[in-house]
Design goal:
Keywords: Hydrolase. It holds the Pfam family CN_hydrolase. Residues 5-257 form the CN hydrolase domain. Strands 1, 2, 3, 4, 5, 8 and 17 form a 7-stranded mixed β-sheet that branches. A 6-stranded mixed β-sheet has the order 9-10-11-12-15-16, covered by helices on one side. A two-stranded antiparallel ribbon has the order 6-7. The protein is an alpha/beta fold and 279 residues long. The protein starts with a strand and ends in a 13-residue tail after the last helix. Helix 1 (18-34) packs parallel to helix 3 (67-79). It is globular and about 50 Å long. The protein is built from 6 helices and 17 strands. Helices cover 27% and strands 28% of the residues.
């Protein structure tokens, strides 16, 4: 697949109200359609962000019963727009946990792919965020192969997965041209590592990296860094939303897959799998 295609990366501030979050997405969809985008990329946990683990368990719904997901499907179908979003799903029966997943909706509103987050945000910084995502989120157990979409061959990842290069390298080996990181980065870790890691993942995989981000204050205890962006295979930021949240916003970029193919041909990153294992 070659040629240029416009994509939109969306930035929002999810709360515990799915109705409110869906209203934000409606604004983002309108902006994406007006810009001529073929796909809209939404952040991690775009369906809701809770105050606590206890509230998390009261909010989670299956995709069939989720007002938010059903609303996304309707928007995708009505606007003939592919949408990818980070959502929550019930965990395995008896686990007491939920799944942090990314879904891809086709322009017909069908869920054609889903990925469950592999790496948990467990962190105890002395002067920074304390998080124990693994207490309530169930770990994914597999790397999902890249899949064909109207904007290119896509590999789905989520937020904290950004810190582990092994997985995107595997996706690149399997043919991914675009790698996604729907995210809700904290402000301290965002300032320190967000841009650096996104650009590194793009450079080492020679892929477009698209990272939709949560931004602003979700409640009285949680705030996200923002700075949704699209990074080219050369590591250049080709689209970005800022860090301040003044309402749902998008940035658009023209994806040229011939650049992916050209770069991989001109700068072949030949891995020494005779020395170290193939990923």
């Amino acid at each position: 697949m070659g040629g240029e295609t416009i994509v939109a990366v969306g930035q929002m501030c999810s709360t515990s109200s799915m109705e409110h979050n869906l209203s934000q997405v409606q604004i983002l969809v309108s902006k994406a359609v007006a810009a001529g985008a073929k796909a809209l990329f939404l952040p991690e946990a775009s369906d809701w962000i809770s105050h606590s683990g206890e509230e998390t368990l009261t909010l989670v719904r299956s995709v069939e019963d989720s007002l938010y997901v059903c609303g996304l499907q309707k928007l995708a179908k009505e606007n003939k727009l592919a949408i990818t979003a980070g959502i929550h799903e019930p965990g395995e029966k008896g686990s007491g946990k939920v799944k942090n997943t990314a879904i891809w909706l086709s322009e017909r509103g069908e869920i054609v792919e889903r990925y469950q987050k592999l790496h948990m945000f467990d962190m105890e910084l002395t002067n920074g965020p304390h998080a124990h995502e693994g207490d309530i989120i169930e770990e994914g157990m597999e790397i999902h192969p890249p899949f064909r979409t109207q904007v290119g061959i896509v590999g789905l990842l989520i937020c904290f997965d950004l810190r582990f290069p092994e997985v995107p390298l595997s996706l690149k080996r399997q043919g991914a041209q675009i790698i996604t990181y729907p995210s809700a980065f904290t402000v301290p870790t965002g300032k320190a590592h967000w841009e650096i890691l996104l650009r590194a993942r793009a450079i080492e995989t020679q892929s477009y990296v698209i990272a939709a981000a949560q931004a602003g204050y979700h409640n009285d205890v949680r705030v996200s860094y923002g700075h949704s962006m699209v990074v080219s295979p050369w590591g250049e930021i080709v689209a970005e939303v800022g860090g301040d949240f003044n309402g749902p916003e998008i940035a658009t970029a023209s994806i040229d897959l011939s650049e992916v193919n050209r770069l991989r041909k001109e700068v072949p990153l030949k891995r020494r799998t005779d020395v170290y294992p193939e990923l």
